[in-house]
Amino acid sequence: MVGRKIIGITIGDSLGAGAQIVVKAMEKASLYMDLGFVVIGSLDIVINALNFTGSSLILNTIKEPSEACFKEGVLNLIDINMDSSKDYFNNDDNTSSDEMSLTYGRKAIELCANKSLDAFILGPASNNYNNKLLCSFHRGIEKVFLNDEESDVYSVMIIRGSLRIAYVYFESFSDSVFKNITQNRIHEMIKLTNEILKKMNIDAPRVAVADIFYSGEYKDTNISDEILSAIEASYREGILAYGPISPDSIYLKAASGEYDAIVDMYHERSNIQMEAIGFEFDDKSNRWNSINEIEIALGGSMIGLAVSHESTINRIAKKTGDTKVLEKAIDIASKLVNTETLNRCSVYSR
After folding, report:
1. 18 with 52: CB under 8 angstroms?
2. Interatomic CA distance for residues 232 and 239, integer angstroms
3. Below-50 pLDDT ranges, the chain
4. Nearest to 14, CA basis, from 108, 130, 99, 76
5. Three-state DSSP class for 266?
6. Computed from CA positions of residues 85, 90, 93, 96, in that sequence, does the dihedral angle turn out positive or negative?
7. How many CA atoms lie within 13 A of 105 on its CB side?
8. Collapsed DSSP state (helix, strand, coil) of residue 322
9. What is the spatial distance between Cα 16 and Cα 89, in angstroms, rounded to a whole number?
């Protein structure tokens, strides 16, 4: 795509604060002079969000990104009609709302796949449904739209606060994960991590590689050798890869700035550390703010984004839904779409 880069942003959960957050963020869209934004959601919900927030944005309903008007004060919306047979606003288990989140996300991926968008951002929605989209995006949707037979090395980098963690396997620990941790896969994930950090303007990324074992645990020397061999291969290629480092200390070292990112072997191990660091304390209000998390899907052939779940009722009522995470995701996406060589990745903020 030549000229202005276009990013699609879904409104996420139709019952949460996603639409309000997106509207508030789009009021600042003029800060990104070289980008155009297209919102993907349902017309009624976006109109309600515009009225609720008191926004002065002018709504421009379109069918394709090519019809968008990228002028200051204009919100371009691709309207996804809601199924009139379903009650989206009186559904205790939020099933219909989650279905709409998936529908918005699939539309964004479809538009990105056919080159109508340069990137997509999955908006605030149920973590389970955003994860479902993220996995299907890499495991099947690219092949459906692009007949893409690229490498099946894909995973996720999670950014919370000062921590950035990429996972060799974005899964819970199991025997199959244990058996499939190989030098080649670890090496590929180190390279992907180094590449995405450079695109985020970190010139000489320091990548810490976690050991699969804690200090004092029995060690399978074969897996330890695989990890060490991957680190050595990366270092020979000029990547500043360090380790293997015990999980006892690696998260604290990275959070303190000693490393720019961690390559961890599997997902669930770092959950507690990421949850603790992901919340931000506001000294002025003397309270904890909502979780701050962005996820970057590594290894795909498209660029995509999304943002933290923001559904607290009192925040919606007080019109205080926080746009910081979405703005940070947009900032990262702007760097990725303006990078000439995109050995692709998708960013997504949960």
Report:
1. no
2. 9
3. 1, 88-89, 92-93, 136-151, 310-314, 317, 340-350
4. 99
5. strand
6. positive
7. 33
8. coil
9. 11
Q: What is residue 221's predicted lDDT score, i.e. its pLDDT? A: 66
Q: How far is CA 125 from CA 157, 193, 277, 306, 308, in A?
A: 18, 26, 21, 9, 7
- pLDDT on residue 219: 63
Pairing relationship of beta strands 155-160 and 163-169 according to DSSP bridges? antiparallel
* Closest residue by Cα to residue 111 from 261, 9, 255, 11: 9
Count of C-beta atoms within a 10 Å radius of residue 107: 18
Angle at which helices 95-113 and 127-136 pack, to 10 degrees?
30
> Contact, 58 vs 74, CB < 8 A?
yes
DSSP state of 57: P
- Per DSSP, which regions of the chain are E strands? 5-10, 35-41, 58-62, 74-79, 119-122, 155-160, 163-169, 206-210, 240-245, 261-266, 279-282, 287-291, 293-298, 304-306, 345-348
pLDDT at 98: 66
Q: What residues contact 295, with CB distance under 8 A and at least 6 apart?
A: 134, 156, 157, 158, 159, 306, 347, 348, 349, 350
Helices (H), 203-344: 221-236, 247-255, 271-278, 313-317, 324-337
Q: State residue 253's pLDDT score.
A: 92
Q: Which of 349, 323, 333 is nearest to 36 (CA)?
A: 333
Q: Per DSSP, what are the bridge partners of residue 346?
A: 297
**pLDDT score, position 24:** 92
Q: Number of helices (H) and strands (E) in the chain: give both, helices first.
A: 12, 15
pLDDT at 346: 47
Q: In 10 A of CB 270, how many CB atoms?
A: 23
Strands 261-266 and 206-210: parallel
